[in-house]
Amino acid sequence: CLTQFNSASLNRHMSQAYNSIVGGGPAGRGGFVEVLAAQQSPTNPEWFQGTADAVRQYLWLFQAAERDGIENYLILSGDHLYRMDYSEFVERHVASGADITVSALPCDEKRASAFGLMKIDDTGRIFEFAEKPQGEALKNMQVDTTVLGLDEARAQEMPYIASMGIYVFKTSAMIDLLTKHFPNANDFGSEVIPGANAMGMNIQAFLFDGYWEDIGTIEAFYKSNLALCESGDKLKFSFYDHEFPIYTMSRFLPPSKVIESEITSSVIGDGCVIRHGSKVSNSVVGLRSLIGSNCVVEDALIMGSDYYETMEECELLPGCMPIGLGNGSVVKKCIIDKNARIGHNVQIINKDNVQEANREKEGYIIKDGIVVIIKDSVIPDGTVI
């Protein structure tokens, strides 16, 4: 797992959650995660500059694995939400004899212009790339998606294939590309793979016809989380799938307590307390969240808290403002990061409909019209944002 700078909490979560639950736990399968954090050195003073650069900086590990007989590498991105059986992806790559296989998402014209698109021949081999084309250039990227296994009706609706940023590389090809042909390239999707195509390498497409979202922006992260509150046909991604469970670290928290409150179309994490008279709708409430009395929480993503706080600990802070949401507060269309202390009668409603703002010293920013309360921030009583 290659992580960017300032990633201590992510590194800890990955190593503890995966290794203990999936790898070596009671139901372990023998797998493991090794975190390779970004670093600076006298010979390489830069952080990871992109996907290809991240792999290149640790290329000595991949070369050692090649000597041990590893023939292919699966390259994944950590800011996507989807559920895939990678064995089918790798098997297709090996069977086709490809140097590189790219996971491809079928999409319609409305969505296609937001992605890097690919054209394929009748064998599924990719021969052309275009980054977020518009107009006539977009229409020129239409392909017959039945070649990849889509049925006729859906192929008519979705005549484009977008790169998901997920790849299988033949080990020898990846090392040659990063060291000999593109030693200064930073990104696989925009530099290395199109360059490999121009060299005549065999690059194949693998169809993924399921839910997939890139959550690399504040807006996408916010919308993808709130989409989990949907139900029925509107629910596109579900955690309630016994065949493909989502693993995380066991925290052994008590059940959440809801006291004379109203909750509609929401997801409530473990160990929360929601006090009387509060209304929560279309929101995700993270673990250990405390929501005071007579609050309104609407279209909000509350990340929760890393720990429970005793009164003795709280009294060490000026004004003794507890972690969580104070009585009578209203929060709408916002993200509240972990361990935030929001006072009584606070309104986080973006009353002026501001689209972009940086108020880090005041404990928040606004991105794409979404208010984000920064981790560990203190928002005083009566504040209106």
Overall spatial form: globular
Alpha-carbon distance between the two ends = 38 Å
Average pLDDT for all residues: 88
How many β-strand stretches?
Answer: 26
- Pick out the low-confidence regions: none
Give the count of helical stretches.
11
Quickly give the structural class: alpha/beta
Q: From the alpha carbons, calculate the radius of gyration and give it in angstroms.
A: 24 Å
Structural descriptors:
385 residues; six-stranded mixed sheet; globular; ten-stranded mixed sheet
Describe this structure in words.
It is a single chain. The chain has helices at residues 8-23, 51-57, 59-67, 86-96, 109-112, 135-139, 152-157, 171-181, 188-198, 218-226, 311-314, and strands at residues 2-3, 36-37, 72-75, 80-82, 100-107, 116-120, 126-131, 160-170, 203-207, 212-214, 257-258, 262-264, 267-268, 273-274, 279-281, 284-285, 290-291, 296-302, 324-325, 330-336, 341-342, 347-348, 356-359, 364-367, 370-373, 378-379. α1 links the parallel β1 (2-3) and β2. It contains eleven helices and 26 strands. Strands 12, 13, 15, 16, 18, 20, 22, 23, 24 and 25 form a ten-stranded mixed beta sheet that branches. The chain has 385 residues and is of the alpha/beta class.
Write the layout of secondary structure elements.
Layout (H helix, E strand, L loop, with lengths): L1 E2 L4 H16 L12 E2 L13 H7 L1 H9 L4 E4 L4 E3 L3 H11 L3 E8 L1 H4 L3 E5 L5 E6 L3 H5 L12 H6 L2 E11 H11 L6 H11 L4 E5 L4 E3 L3 H9 L30 E2 L3 E3 L2 E2 L4 E2 L4 E3 L2 E2 L4 E2 L4 E7 L8 H4 L9 E2 L4 E7 L4 E2 L4 E2 L7 E4 L4 E4 L2 E4 L4 E2 L6
Parallel strand pairs: 1-2, 5-9, 11-14, 12-15, 13-16, 14-17, 15-18, 16-18, 18-20, 19-21, 20-22, 20-25, 21-26
Antiparallel strand pairs: 3-8, 4-10, 5-8, 6-7, 6-8, 23-24, 24-25
